[in-house]
Each structure stands twice: as structure tokens, then as C-alpha cells.
Write a structure and sequence with these properties.
It is an enzyme of class 5 (isomerase). The protein is α+β, with helices and mostly antiparallel strands. It is built from six helices and twelve strands. α1 runs antiparallel to α4.
Length: 222
């Protein structure tokens, strides 16, 4: 039931932003999410590597909007689903620039601009019952934390971020098969003020010898 509701929610997003004419249609499955990248890996590097599976329509390493530094994850869009699936099965845990990457399916909606995402996220929250009305603003008490050291744990982050206020939950996202850290996490605060303070003070801070990146997220991203 949960999977069905999530699928419906994702389709509704795509309908809202114009990628689908009808939310009843299945969203495209030709986009891969690639994380645990080496900071030196570029768009061109990934395009060359992934194009062995088929035509790559676009390939983007996501970067810090201020510094231009890689946030160590990317989106790779293929011309067709078959090529995307082949890359998914063959590229996970492959070594690129001395880093073993993680590959998963994504949706084109993940690359949309922030102003359109806000409306879409609110609609999801309405669908799953977290908001009575999609016109209401979704909560802003969740942080997305990436570029983590693989050794950093939930407890480590909770101790560090709790200096800004009560942390309701803290989760380092892990590979469902190996249990290895995917080097990003979600930190949920009890209130928005604490979340905002952590956002302004924790970006680019050194944790376990890695400078982390912090951005606002939404609870639905979890």
C-alpha cells in the first residue's frame, strides 16, 4: 500500500510540472541517481562511462551553487529505459576515480527547479495525509546533509546537530544490501528555528575529516 501511494504521489508531481498529461500514467524510468562520487569526477567523465550502455541525453554532477564544488552525486538521463536499466544493474559499486559509486533509479522530477518542487512536495504531503491542503507550505524543519565520511553514523550527526535544538530524527542513508553509508543523511528538528540555525552554521563544517554540505529538505524526501 505504501509503495502504491508513493508511486501515485510521484506521478502527481510529474502531472503538476507538466512532465505527464495525466497522473495515472507511469512516470519515466530512464534517469539514474548516482552518488558517492569522487569530487574530481565531471559530467563528461560520467557521460563517457555511461554512454557504453546507450545514448545519454543528459548528465549532470550536482554542484554547490556558491563554490561550484561537486556535491558528489549526479543524474544521468538515457534516451531509453532499456539502456537505463542495463546501466543500473552493471554500474552499481563500480570504481570511478578511486571511489565505488552507488547507482539507483531516479525520476526527472528530482532535477526540477526549486520553485516548482515546493508545490509538488506540498501535493505529496496532502496525498499522504501530512497536510490538509496542498496550498499550505510544507514544513521546513528537515536538513539534507551530504558529502559525509562513510564512517559517520546517525549518533554522530545527532550529537553534533543537537547543539542547535532538539533533533527528532537523524538518519544516514545506507545501501539496502550492504549497509554501507551512501554518504548523505536527513536531520529532522523539532522546530524550524533550530533547523535554520543549523543550516546557516553547519554548511562546509568538517566532520570526520570531510567538509559536509547542508541544505534544506522536506520530510517527504525520506
Amino acid at each position: 500500500l505504501k509503495q502504491e501511494r508513493e508511486a501515485r504521489a510521484r506521478a502527481t508531481i510529474l502531472e503538476i510540472v507538466g512532465d505527464l498529461p495525466d497522473a495515472e500514467m507511469a512516470p519515466p524510468e530512464n534517469v539514474l541517481f548516482v552518488c558517492k562520487l569522487n569530487p574530481v569526477t565531471t559530467d563528461d567523465d560520467l557521460e563517457i562511462i555511461f554512454s557504453r550502455f546507450g545514448k545519454v541525453k543528459s548528465c549532470e554532477v550536482i554542484r554547490d551553487k556558491n563554490t561550484g564544488d561537486s556535491l558528489q552525486y549526479a543524474f544521468v538521463e538515457f534516451d531509453d529505459q532499456k539502456s537505463c536499466e542495463e546501466a543500473y544493474f552493471k554500474m552499481d559499486n563500480v570504481l570511478i576515480d578511486d571511489r565505488r559509486i552507488h547507482v539507483d533509479f531516479s525520476q526527472s522530477v528530482a532535477k526540477l527547479k526549486q520553485e516548482r518542487e515546493a508545490r509538488a512536495r506540498a501535493t505529496i504531503l496532502e496525498i499522504v495525509g501530512d497536510l490538509p491542503d496542498a496550498e499550505m507550505a510544507p514544513p521546513e524543519n528537515v536538513l539534507f546533509v551530504c558529502k559525509l565520511n562513510p564512517v559517520t553514523t546517525d549518533d554522530d550527526l545527532e550529537i553534533i546537530f543537537s547543539r542547535f535544538g532538539k533533533v527528532k530524527s537523524c538518519e544516514v542513508i545506507r545501501d539496502k544490501n550492504t549497509g554501507d553509508s551512501l554518504q548523505y543523511a536527513f536531520v529532522e528538528f523539532d522546530d524550524q528555528k533550530s533547523c535554520e540555525e543549523a543550516y546557516f552554521k553547519m554548511d562546509n563544517v568538517l566532520i570526520d575529516d570531510r567538509r559536509i554540505h547542508v541544505d534544506f529538505s522536506q520530510s517527504v524526501a525520506k
